[in-house]
Amino acid sequence: MKYISTRGKAPKLAFDDVLLAGLARDGGLYLPETWPTFSKAEIAAMKDMSYTQVAVKVMAPFVEGAVSIEDLTRIVNDTYAVFEGDDPAPLVKLGENEYVLELFHGPTLAFKDYALQFLGRMFDHVLAKRGAKLTIAGATSGDTGSAAIEACRDRDAIEIFILHPAGKVSEVQRRQMTTVLSDNVHNIALRGNFDDCQNTVKALFADEPFRDAVHLSAVNSINWARIMAQVVYYFWAALKVGAPETPVSFAVPTGNFGNVFAGYVAKQMGLNINQFVVGSNANDILIRFIETGRMESKGVVETTSPSMDIQISSNFERFMFELLDRNASDLVALMDEFKTTGKFSVTPAFMNRLKTLVDGERFDDAATAKLIGDVYKQSGYLLDTHSAIGVGAARARRQNSAIPMVALATAHPAKFPDAVKAASGVHPALPEFLSDLYERKERSVTLDNSFDAVKGYIETTLKERAKL
Q1: What's residue 186's pLDDT?
Q2: Is 161 helix (H, G, I), strand (E, B) or coil?
Q3: Domain boundaries 91-109+225-424, CATH class
Q4: What per-residue confidence (pLDDT) applies to 343?
Q5: Which of 132, 191, 253, 260 could be 389's S-S partner, Cβ–Cβ 3.0 to 4.6 Å?
Q6: Whose CA is closest to 194, among 283, 117, 274?
Q7: What DSSP state is assigned to residue 183?
Q8: Beta strand pairing status for 13-14 and 2-5?
Q9: Residue 220 pLDDT
Q10: Distances (CA, A) of 399 to 61, 98, 99, 238, 391
C-alpha cells in the first residue's frame, strides 16, 4: 500500500513513512493511492468477530508491506486492553431504529482514544525498528490533546508538545492534559483559539529545517493512522445492526471532519452506508458549505461544545480531494484561494456529488441544552454536549426511518459536567479512575499566539532534555 498527498507534489510513501511524516512535505494530507475493498461475503464473515479482530481485518490492507499481521494484531490487542469492559464500543438503542455508539470507554473518555491509543503503540513499534526518536506537535480543541498525551506519556522515543487554546477548553479537558506530569509531556496554553493552535502546528511542519532537526510528527487527524483506526468502529456498529444485508446511516458531531471522513472511507471499502449527517454547533462553517457551496471562515464562537469550536476543518481537504476526482491542482487552487481570501466556492457538479453523501444541521447552545434535557426525560439516557448535537442532527435530517441510524457519542458527559447538569438536572460523575482529577497537580506553560514563541519553546525544551 502506497500513500499520496492531496496536494500532488510530495513523494508516494509506505505506511510507516506516512505515520512518522504526519503532514506531507507539500502541505497536503496523505491518503491511500487506492481504496481497499471488502466483498459482502467478507463483511458478513466479520459478524462473529470481536472488536479487536474486526480492527485487524479492517486495518490490515492499509499497513500491507510495512507492518506484519502478527505485529498489527499485537498492537491492536494492547490498544483495546486498556478500554473499559469487554466491548470497547457499545451500541445503545435510543429509539425505533435509532442508536447511540458509545465512543467514550477509553482512558480519556473520548472517541480520540480509539485512534490515539493505537497511534502511540504504532509509533513505538516503528521507532523501535528504526532506532529513531520523534517529536510530536499537536493542536487540540479539548479531546485530542488528552488522548494523545495518554497514548504517548513515558515513551522514551517520543517528546510530545500539545497546544490548547488558553481558557477555551473545559476544566476536565484541561486537567486531563495538564495533570500528566511525565517528563516527555509538554502542555502549551496558547493565547488564541483552536484555529490559531492548528495554524501554528501546520507552520511548524512547513518549516522544513526545524521539522527535520527535531524529527517532527503529528497526532492530529492530519496523520492518516488516526483516520485508519477510526474506520473500525463504523464497521463494528454496522455489523451490530445487520450489515452487510441491512444498510445503515450515521450521524456525526464534527469540528475537524476526521470522524466523518473515516465513515466515508468505510463506505469506500464496501460498507453499505445510506447517509451521513454532520452535526455542528454555532461554528457552522461546514453546514453553511453543505447548504450553499461557499466555504467562508468567520470568527470562532465559544460554545458549550468546545471540541467543535473550529472554523478550519483540516480533514475536509481529504474529502474535497475525493469529490474533485483526486485532481490535486484543482484542490490547491481552492486551498490557495481560501488562504488568501478566507473563502471559496465550488461548482454545481461538486455540490451535486457532495449532497449524495452528506447532509447537516446546526444547534446553538440553547438547542443543545434542550436536546440533552429532552433525551434524558424521554429515555433516561444522558448525552454530553457534542453527542447531543449528533443525535439532534440525526433526528433533523434523517431520510429513511426504516434504515438504522447510529449517532456517534464522542465524549462522556462528565467531561462537560456544568453544561450537562444545567441541561438535565443531573451531575455526571467521573469514573472512579478519574475521581481525584480535581486534586491532581497541574503543569503547563502559557505562550503568546506566536509561531516564534512556540518554536523557541520546543527547541529550548528539547535542548534541556538533551533531545536536540
Answers
A1: 98
A2: strand
A3: alpha beta
A4: 94
A5: 253
A6: 283
A7: T
A8: antiparallel
A9: 82
A10: 32, 13, 15, 17, 14
Buried b (16+ CB within 10 A) or exposed e, 63-101: bbebbeeeebeebbebbbeebeeeebbbbeebbebbbbb
- Three cell numbers written together for 173: 479537558
Rounded to whole angstroms, how far apart are CA atoms 42 and 44? Answer: 5
The C-alpha atoms of residue 332 and residue 294 are separated, in whole angstroms, by 16
Domain ranges of the chain: 91-109+225-424
395 neighbors 367 (Cβ within 8 angstroms): no
Identity of the residue numbered 413: P
For residues 206 and 313, what is the distance between their CA atoms, to the nearest angstrom?
18
> Contact 100/49 with Cβ under 8 angstroms?
no
Please give the Cα distance from 369 to 422 (Å, whole number): 8
Report strand pairing: 134-139 vs 158-165: parallel
Q: Please report, rounded to a whole number, the percentage of residues in the chain having pLDDT higher than 90.
A: 93
CA–CA dist 119, 57 (Å, integer): 17
Residues 164-210 pLDDT 10s:
999 999 999 999 999 999 999 999 999 999 999 999 999 999 999 99
Per the CB < 8 A criterion, the answer to whether 273 and 250 are in contact is yes
Ranges of the chain with pLDDT below 50: none
* Cα 89-414-83 angle, rounded to 5 deg: 30
Alpha carbon distance 283, 265 (integer Å)? 25
For residue 85, what is the DSSP state? S
Count the helix, strand and coil residues of the chain and give each as a percent rounded to the nearest 5: 50, 15, 35
Alpha carbon 264 to its chain centroid, in Å, reads 14
What's the N-to-C CA distance of the chain in angstroms?
33
- Catalytically active residues, by annotation: 112
Spell out the long-range contacts of 259-264 with Cβ–Cβ below 8 A and sequence spacing 24 or more.
Answer: 259/111, 259/230, 259/408, 259/410, 260/315, 260/319, 260/358, 261/227, 261/315, 261/316, 261/318, 261/319, 262/227, 262/228, 262/230, 262/231, 262/234, 263/231, 263/234, 264/319, 264/322, 264/357
Q: Is 162 helix (H, G, I), strand (E, B) or coil?
A: strand
Angle between helices 112-130 and 69-81 (to 10 degrees): 130
If you count them, how many residues does the chain have?
468
How far, in Å, CA of 255 to CA of 189, rounded? Answer: 20
